DNA sequence: GCCCCGATGTATCGGCCCGATACATCGCTA
DNA sequence: TAGCGATGTATCGGGCCGATACATCGGGGC
C-alpha cells in the first residue's frame, strides 16, 4: 500500500525522505496520521533494491544544504517503477477496499482511468454497506447485551457508515455521468496531467524559488 | 491496547479464544474489523505468562464438544489481571486518543469512573480538533497544489472531523451533567456496575444458563 | 449409511508498520 | 555563544495482520 503512495508521489517529482513524508501526510492526512520513518526508510530501500526507484545523490535544489558528509538522498522513480505504479493502481484486491487501501487509491484517482475508479468506488461502497449491516444487526438484536456506552459507539459508527455510503453514491453518480468530483464550492479539475502513465511526458515540475 | 480489551471482556465472563474474537468484533466493530488470530493467540500467551489470566481446561459449558485431544482452552482473569485492567483503564497516554485506543477505552466506559471518562473525551476532542485544523489549512491554502480528487478526500475527512467533535461535545456535556450517554431513542443506563475499580466487589456475574 | 461442507476451534509464520531512539546540520534568537 | 526548533537519515524491538495448516462437530444431500 505504501509502495503505491511513494511511487505515486515520486511520479510527480523526485524527493528525499523527509519531504516525501510531509507530502504523504498532507495527501493522505485523512487516512493515516503520518508515515513513520521506521516504515519509510526500509520501504525506500526495498523499492530501490527491487529497481522501482533510484537514488540520485546531491540534487540541484541543494542551494545551501548539508555542507559535508551524508547529504540528503533524493529518490526518483524508474521506468520499471512507473510500470509497477500502473499495475498497482489498476488492480483491485480485497485490501483495496479497507480504509487505508481505499484512501491511497482514491488519492491517485486523477491518474486512474474511469473504469477502475468506478470499480473501486463500488467495491468500497459494498464493503461499507456490509459493515453497516453488521452494525444494524448488533444494534437491533443486542438491546440488553451491551451497555449504553458501547451502544453509543455503535450508533456513531453506524452514522459514519451511512454518511460514507451517501458520499460514495454521489461520487459514483458523478463518475458515471463523466463529471469531475465537483462538490458545491469546488473548483474545476485542472485537466488531467499525464493522461496515462505514459513515459517521457516532459512535465516541467517547478522547484520553488 | 489489545490487553485492555481482552482483560475487559474476561472480566465479564471466562471465554475461549474463538468466542473472545467474536465478542471483540461486536464490541469494537466500529474500531477494528476483527482481531486476527495471529494477534490473539500470542497475546493470550503473553497475558498468561505475565499472570494476568489463567487457562482453565474443560469448562462446564462443554456440553458436547471435542471428545478427544486438545479441547478448547478457556481463559479467565486473575486478581492481578483485574488490577492491571484498572490501571490501564485509568491512565491515559497519547495512544489513548488515536482511533483504536479511544475506541477501546470508550467501549469500557461503563467500568470507568466519571473523571477519567471526562479526561479521555476531552483528550480525544483535542486530538480531533488538531486533525481538523490541519485539514482546514490544507484545504484553504492548497487550492491549486492538489487535484480535485485529493481535495474531495480532504473535504470528506474534514466533515467527519467536525461531526466527531460535535458528537464528543454532546457526550462531554452529558457527562458533566451526570447523565448517561442518552441520545434520543436510547434506553436507560443499567445502574453503574462496580462503581470504581474497587477490589473485591462481589459482583455476581451471571453465566448464561 | 456415507460424504462433503461450513462453523467451530487452536496455532504458527512472514511481513508490514509503528514508536522510540540516536545522531548530525542549519538558521534563528536570546 | 549557546540553545532550540526544523530539517534530515537511519535502526531496533515489538504489535498486529493475512495466509496457512490442522482438527472436530453438526447437518444436508444422495
TrEMBL record, chains A, B:
Identify the Pfam families for this entry. PadR (PF03551)
Annotated region (Disordered), positions in chain: 173-209
**All copies of domain Transcription regulator PadR N-terminal, residue ranges:** 6-86
Q: Which InterPro entries match?
A: Metal_resp_DNA-bind_regulator, Tscrpt_reg_PadR_N, WH-like_DNA-bd_sf, WH_DNA-bd_sf
Top-rank taxon, per record = Bacteria
- Biased segments, Basic and acidic residues type: 193-209
Q: Which Gene3D superfamilies match?
A: Winged helix-like DNA-binding domain superfamily/Winged helix DNA-binding domain
Q: Which PANTHER family match?
A: CONSERVED PROTEIN, PADR-FAMILY TRANSCRIPTIONAL REGULATOR
Question: What is the protein named?
Answer: PadR family transcriptional regulator
Q: From what organism does this protein derive?
A: Paractinoplanes tereljensis
Amino acid at each position: 500500500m505504501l509502495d503505491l503512495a511513494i511511487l505515486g508521489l515520486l511520479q510527480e517529482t523526485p524527493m528525499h525522505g523527509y519531504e516525501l513524508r510531509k507530502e504523504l501526510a498532507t495527501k493522505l492526512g485523512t487516512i493515516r496520521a503520518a508515515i513513520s520513518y521506521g516504515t519509510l526508510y526500509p520501504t525506500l530501500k526495498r523499492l530501490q533494491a527491487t529497481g522501482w526507484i533510484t537514488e540520485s545523490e546531491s540534487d540541484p535544489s541543494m542551494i545551501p544544504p548539508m555542507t559535508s558528509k551524508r547529504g540528503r538522498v533524493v529518490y526518483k522513480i524508474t521506468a520499471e517503477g512507473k510500470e509497477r505504479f500502473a499495475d498497482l493502481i489498476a488492480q483491485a484486491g480485497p485490501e483495496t477496499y479497507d480504509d487505508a487501501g481505499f484512501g491511497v487509491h482514491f488519492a491517485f484517482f486523477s491518474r486512474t482511468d474511469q473504469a477502475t475508479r468506478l470499480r473501486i468506488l463500488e467495491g468500497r461502497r459494498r464493503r461499507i454497506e456490509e459493515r453497516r449491516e453488521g452494525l444494524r444487526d448488533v444494534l437491533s438484536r443486542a438491546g440488553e447485551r451491551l451497555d449504553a456506552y458501547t451502544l453509543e459507539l455503535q450508533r456513531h459508527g453506524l452514522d459514519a457508515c451511512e454518511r460514507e455510503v451517501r458520499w460514495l453514491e454521489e461520487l459514483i453518480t458523478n463518475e458515471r455521468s463523466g463529471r469531475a468530483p465537483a462538490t458545491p464550492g469546488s473548483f474545476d479539475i485542472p485537466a488531467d496531467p499525464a493522461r496515462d502513465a505514459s513515459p517521457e511526458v516532459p512535465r516541467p515540475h517547478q522547484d520553488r524559488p
